[in-house]
Task: inverse folding
């Protein structure tokens, strides 16, 4: 499940990526000027294209922006949004913040973790769902909330969450 | 004539099924040969009624809510899109007491206009503030904002005009306006709702700020957890630019100003202004030492105005109506209106804009209608995850920055999260420390280490080997964090912890 961890050749940035991923990363980098301040937009572009930011892509980014790999890695690892491993086919983000807690988010959290048999930032054994925590989706008057892929869902009950998970069963 | 039907394109409405409802209304109308135009408006802020569907009639707009996909066919059967009898009918929306009691200035257009329609914006008071600012010298614009008494709505409540004046007084070849839309506080959603429902208002506010201080470039730093707001604002920027409201020689006035949208990446700390600047520059969102102030050395080392969404969105009306109009609203040193966000365990939650001075109790009872669960309200947290927990005995506190500070609480960004009597306040205190540990930028020790130790001490208190000694330790730790942290994250995390301990000590008793 980790296609992008082939041993990179230090003399050739991005050599740990397969050809398709490498082309995506290079296209994203090419769409920006070479300035440090576009680092986050570039990382967003890579994650939007591939679902994560492969560690093997970091040398490409570093070299394009004239940064060290350590600097780029430092940024990727700082921000919760960026993933370093490929996610499952769907990403479910459960809101853990106070407004959702007040409406039973802790029970939903426990239920989902039990049903999927995983913790946060893990992917279910069948590769269907990656579970991530999120701290507020701005839907606090219709709590509890979760975001499945890019779609926010509110007023969740255990049954509603089960329906969301069931819906992830069919592979599109 | 085509009948206009409004179905909000707002995260809360969409999260409750508004997209599907809009689609269903279109298909049902087509099937029946009824001529309707579905407008995707912003939200009125009556979140408990979302999706709130409105139809335009000669008398005004009639509301129905909450409407699910399953209700649509029945509505048409009953005579929709006329004024039909239906159990979810709300009558004329503008006559609803919940809205009528409010003072909507910043949110005057939300839910009423089509957020992306420039003509609709102009027809409902849009650009009036900019038109006024255009006829004024920079100093006069800044003076108006100073006299209005507007304070930063992001939480720190610093006088906005003073900040602008500092930037105006700097001599530099480049200055910036940065909008902090990294609305990470739990229980707050006014920034999101404004950006989704009236995005040109923010653009107008930034244009005025740019004119006031001599900045030609603006950034909006919007959080990645708000994908719909990101899409709406990106569309708004394109439309505004195409119409000449952004770019060079704006509307023939000879001035340049453009705005770039930047998306955050899930770091709560980037709501702290210096972390946000670091993030915009492409680095880890670590807090900077102050001084120098961002107003003197901010983005890329240049003088920078950094303001919250609501602060900037309040400016157009201040320019249009004058400083005195705004200053006459509110109490004490808290002038103007505050968009209050009522969420969590509350029956009628949503966005309530009022002049400062309303009490928590009025909001909880008269607007909120009690808890959603029907159980007694035991505590509210005001001002986000770093805000204090208040017990029922403090519900008569008026919403006013100084009144909250006087009870060791803070108003912050105006979010109120309600808990019923099933809440475990020791668990909430523990969560405050846990959240701080997750989100700490790591630069200063009290926050980075203190938060993790805080979780451990609370766990030990409840396990009860030596609860008394652990309580002393927890208080001492909070004291260190409060006085020794570099920014508000470590510095304010003790607020929810100590307030829980003070008002709900029984919850910290040993678990058996």
Result:
């Amino acid at each position: 499940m980790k296609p992008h961890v082939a041993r990179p050749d230090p003399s050739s940035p991005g050599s740990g990526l397969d050809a398709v991923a490498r082309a995506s990363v290079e296209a994203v980098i090419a769409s920006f000027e070479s300035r440090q301040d576009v680092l986050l937009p570039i990382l967003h572009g890579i994650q939007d294209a591939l679902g994560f930011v492969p560690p093997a892509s970091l040398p490409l980014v570093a070299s394009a922006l004239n940064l060290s790999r350590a600097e780029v890695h430092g940024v990727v690892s700082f921000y919760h949004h960026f993933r370093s491993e490929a996610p499952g086919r769907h990403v479910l983000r459960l809101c853990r913040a106070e407004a959702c807690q007040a409406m039973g988010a802790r029970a939903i959290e426990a239920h989902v973790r039990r049903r999927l048999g995983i913790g946060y930032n893990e992917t279910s054994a069948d590769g269907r769902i990656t579970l991530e925590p999120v701290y507020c989706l701005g839907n606090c008057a219709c709590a509890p909330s979760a975001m499945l892929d890019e779609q926010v869902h509110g007023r969740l009950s255990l049954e509603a969450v089960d329906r969301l998970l069931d819906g992830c069963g069919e592979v599109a | 004539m085509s009948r206009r039907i409004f179905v909000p394109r707002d995260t809360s409405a969409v999260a409750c099924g508004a997209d599907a409802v809009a689609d269903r209304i279109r298909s049902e109308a087509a099937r029946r040969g009824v001529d309707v135009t579905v407008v995707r408006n912003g939200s009125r802020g009556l979140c408990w009624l979302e999706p709130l569907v409105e139809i335009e009639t000669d008398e005004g707009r009639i509301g129905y809510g909450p409407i699910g996909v399953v209700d649509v066919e029945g509505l048409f059967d009953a005579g929709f899109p006329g004024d039909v009898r239906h159990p979810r009918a709300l009558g004329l929306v503008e006559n609803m007491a919940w809205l009528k009691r409010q003072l909507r200035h910043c949110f005057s257009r939300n839910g009423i206009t089509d957020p992306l329609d420039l003509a609709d914006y102009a027809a409902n008071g849009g650009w009036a503030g900019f038109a006024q600012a255009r006829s004024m010298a920079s100093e006069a614009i800044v003076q108006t904002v100073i006299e209005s008494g507007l304070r930063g709505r992001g939480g720190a409540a610093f006088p906005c005009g003073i900040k602008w004046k500092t930037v105006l007084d700097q001599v530099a070849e480049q200055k910036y306006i940065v909008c902090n839309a990294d609305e990470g506080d739990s229980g707050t959603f006014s920034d999101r709702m404004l950006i989704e429902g009236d995005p040109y208002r923010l653009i107008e506010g930034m244009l005025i700020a740019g004119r006031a201080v001599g900045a030609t470039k603006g950034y909006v730093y919007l959080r990645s957890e708000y994908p719909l707001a990101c899409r709406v604002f990106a569309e708004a920027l394109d439309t505004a630019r195409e119409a000449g409201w952004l770019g060079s020689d704006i509307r023939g006035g000879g001035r340049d100003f453009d705005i770039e949208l930047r998306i955050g990446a899930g770091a709560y700390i980037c709501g702290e202004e210096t972390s946000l600047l670091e993030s915009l520059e492409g680095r880890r969102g670590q807090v900077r030492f102050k001084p120098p102030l961002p107003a003197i050395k901010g983005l890329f080392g240049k003088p920078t105005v950094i303001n919250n969404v609501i602060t900037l969105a309040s400016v157009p009306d201040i320019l249009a109506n004058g400083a005195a109009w705004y200053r006459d609203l509110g109490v004490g040193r808290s002038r103007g209106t505050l968009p209050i966000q009522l969420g969590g365990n509350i029956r009628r939650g949503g966005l309530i804009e009022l002049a400062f001075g309303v009490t928590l109790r009025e909001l909880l009872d008269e607007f909120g209608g009690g808890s959603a669960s029907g159980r007694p309200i035991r505590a509210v947290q005001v001002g986000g995850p770093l805000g204090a927990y208040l017990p029922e005995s403090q519900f008569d506190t008026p919403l006013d920055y100084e009144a909250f500070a006087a009870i060791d609480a803070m108003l912050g960004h105006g979010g109120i999260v309600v808990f019923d009597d099933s809440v475990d306040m020791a668990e909430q205190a523990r969560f405050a420390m846990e959240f701080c540990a997750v989100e700490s930028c790591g630069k200063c020790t009290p926050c980075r280490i203190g938060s993790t130790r805080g979780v451990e001490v609370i766990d030990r208190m409840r396990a009860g080997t030596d609860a008394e000694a652990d309580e002393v330790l927890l208080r001492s730790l909070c004291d260190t964090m409060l006085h020794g942290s570099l920014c508000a994250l470590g510095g304010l995390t003790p607020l929810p912890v100590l307030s829980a301990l003070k008002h709900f000590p029984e919850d910290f008793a040993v678990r058996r």
Q: What stands out?
A: The helical segments of chain A are 19-30, 39-50, 58-65, 69-78, 98-101, 105-116, 158-167. The radius of gyration of chain A is 18 Å. The longest strand of chain A covers residues 90-95. Strands of chain A lie at 90-95, 122-123, 129-134, 146-148, 151-153.
